[in-house]
Structure formats: structure tokens, C-alpha cells
Design goal:
The protein has 15 helices and no strands. By secondary structure, it is mainly alpha-helical. Helix 3 packs antiparallel against helix 12 (252-260), helix 6 runs antiparallel to helix 13 (264-281) and helix 10 packs across helix 14 (283-295). The protein is globular. The protein has helices at residues 3-24, 30-35, 42-53, 56-68, 72-82, 84-102, 107-114, 118-150, 157-203, 209-219, 234-247, 252-260, 264-281, 283-295, 307-311.
Length: 312
């Protein structure tokens, strides 16, 4: 077994053990299983918010967009997503208050009860389920591609996607939201450390970050333009910025975490830290995508979304 495969299996085993540890301290009630007994403190809530939102698109989509569009994509995503924190502050605190007072567990439950409309509750539920399914499907798809690239094909795409899905289903089924929150803390810490480390390790053999960017600029100056080589018109840029504020808080996995906070203070702390993360961490995959032109200059279409594992 290669070192990479050993690390992959060890990591998955650790997440499963965390799931069982969460199960050991759980109680048999819906609040505990679905919302970790509404006990998400500032640190846990912050990490579970970022880990659940920064999914396959962060690792593959961002780096691929950096390869195709350049640094202007970071400006839009980094600062546009940072504005989501406004929703955490204004919407999240109100949702937490209603959940605490009325015992709501799911978003449709709250919407239907607050507006006294069963049809609206059903519509809200249907929209959330239908549009969440493709989002969920993207995660094992992205993981399968990452694992196939990083293991040199010794763990093929389909087997990697299935393996990851099985482990996730197991620890979620066993420990509920508490196991998700605990594994999110682990994954959030790893994501921070390893993404910055990846930028360092990739740029060092290329002469360092400054020299590598200068080399890319000489062959692809449009990657450094504010319009991304004509990709971003002012109208498109504005629509993207507004989109994140309206869309992200309505993701069911994000909305549920408003209910699980232990206090409004935890939501306020997350609202303050979230923009700092997007403004710094989102730059890493974009840098890797841009520098990818030095090693893989002719990628097109779907291939561009594999630039991060190729560079690693």
C-alpha cells in the first residue's frame, strides 16, 4: 500500500472514530441528533460553517477558475462570499431565536409555522431537497477525482467516490450533527494548514511565489487583469456578489447550523471570522490554478478543474 493510500485510509478511519465518540456522548432525542443539542459554541460553530460550505468547489472549482480566469475570480469569490457573514449576523440570530423559543429543527418547519402555511412549507421543503441533491452529488464526485489524481490511479475515481460516501454516511448515521461538527473542526484545521502549505510547496520549486507569478504574467497577462481577460463585465461581477448573500444562507446545511448555535454570541463570532477566512484562504487555490500554467500550459475544458491535484 502506498503512503498516500495509507494516509487516506487513516484519515477516513479517524473521522469514523470521531463519529463513534460523538455517538457515545449523545442522548436519544431529535435536538441532540439533528442539532448537537443546540450546543454549538463559537469555535465549533465557526469551523462547521466553513467546512460544510467550502466543499469540492473550493478545491477543484476555484483552482480551475484560477487557471482559466485568473486572480479576478478571487476578488469576486473572496469578497462576495465574505458578505455572507451579514446573513449570519442578521438572519442567523433571528433564526436561532425562533428555534430556541419554538423548538424548530428544520428550516421548512420554521417557515411553515411562522407564516402559517402548509403549502409554503411543502414548497420550501421540495426546493431545498431537489436543489440540494446535485450539490450533495458533487462532493463524492470531486473527492473521487482528487483521490484518483493523488494516488496516481491506484484508487480509481469510482471506488474513491464510493469509499468516501460510505464513510461519511456511517459517521453521520451513527453520531448525527455532533459527529459532523466534530469532524468539521478536524477538517477545518487541516484545510487551513494544508492549503497554505500546498501554496508554499508548489511555488518553491518554481522560484518562489513572486518569481512564479512573474513567469505566468509573461505568458498569460490576462490572468492578472481586473476583468479576467474579459470574463467579468460589471453586471456579471455585481450579480455574483449579490448572489452569495441571497443564496448561501438558504443552503439547508447552513440554515440548520443557525439552529445549532448555543447563543447569538457564537453566531456573531462566526460572522466576524468568516470574512477573514474567505479573504485569505480563497486565495490559495486561485494561486495554484494560475501557477498551473507553468507546468500544464495546455489544459482545456474539464481538465482545468484537475489542476490542483496535478500540481500537488
Amino acid at each position: 500500500m502506498s503512503v498516500t493510500l495509507f494516509i487516506v485510509f487513516a484519515y477516513l478511519l479517524i473521522t469514523l472514530l470521531l463519529g463513534f465518540a460523538a455517538w457515545r456522548v449523545s442522548t436519544e432525542n431529535p435536538d441532540d441528533y439533528f442539532l448537537a443539542d443546540r450546543g454549538g459554541g463559537p469555535l465549533v460553530l465557526f469551523f462547521t460553517l466553513i467546512a460544510t460550505n467550502f466543499s469540492a468547489f473550493f478545491f477543484l472549482g476555484f483552482s480551475g477558475a484560477g487557471y482559466r480566469i485568473g486572480y479576478s475570480y478571487y476578488t469576486m469569490m473572496g469578497f462576495g462570499t465574505a458578505l455572507v457573514a451579514l446573513a449570519f449576523y442578521f438572519i442567523g440570530q433571528k433564526v436561532w431565536q425562533f428555534g430556541k423559543q419554538q423548538g424548530y429543527i428544520t428550516p421548512p418547519e420554521m417557515i411553515g409555522d411562522r407564516l402559517n402555511s402548509r403549502p409554503l412549507k411543502v414548497v420550501y421543503l421540495s426546493v431545498m431537497v431537489i436543489f440540494t441533491l446535485p450539490y450533495l452529488a458533487l462532493q463524492p464526485i470531486g473527492a473521487g477525482h482528487l483521490l484518483a489524481q493523488l494516488t496516481g490511479g491506484s484508487l480509481p475515481y469510482f471506488q474513491g467516490a464510493v469509499l468516501l460516501s460510505v464513510f461519511i454516511v456511517l459517521y453521520v448515521f451513527v453520531g448525527g450533527m455532533r459527529s459532523i461538527a466534530w469532524t468539521d473542526v478536524l477538517q477545518g484545521v487541516l484545510m487551513f494548514g494544508l492549503m497554505f502549505l500546498a501554496v508554499y510547496l508548489i511555488s518553491k520549486p518554481l522560484g518562489g511565489l513572486t518569481a512564479a507569478n512573474q513567469a505566468v504574467y509573461e505568458i498569460k497577462p490576462e490572468l492578472f487583469s481586473a476583468e479576467g481577460g474579459g470574463y467579468f463585465t460589471p453586471a456579471k461581477f455585481f450579480s455574483f456578489m449579490v448572489l452569495w448573500i441571497l443564496a448561501v444562507p438558504m443552503f439547508p446545511q447552513m440554515f440548520m447550523r443557525f439552529f445549532m448555535a448555543d447563543s447569538p454570541r457564537s453566531l456573531r463570532v462566526s460572522a466576524c471570522l468568516y470574512p477573514l477566512v474567505t479573504a485569505t484562504l480563497f486565495l490559495c487555490p486561485i494561486i495554484i490554478g494560475v501557477l498551473g500554467h507553468l507546468e500544464f500550459p495546455d489544459l482545456t475544458g474539464r481538465e482545468t478543474d484537475t489542476i490542483l491535484p496535478k500540481m500537488l
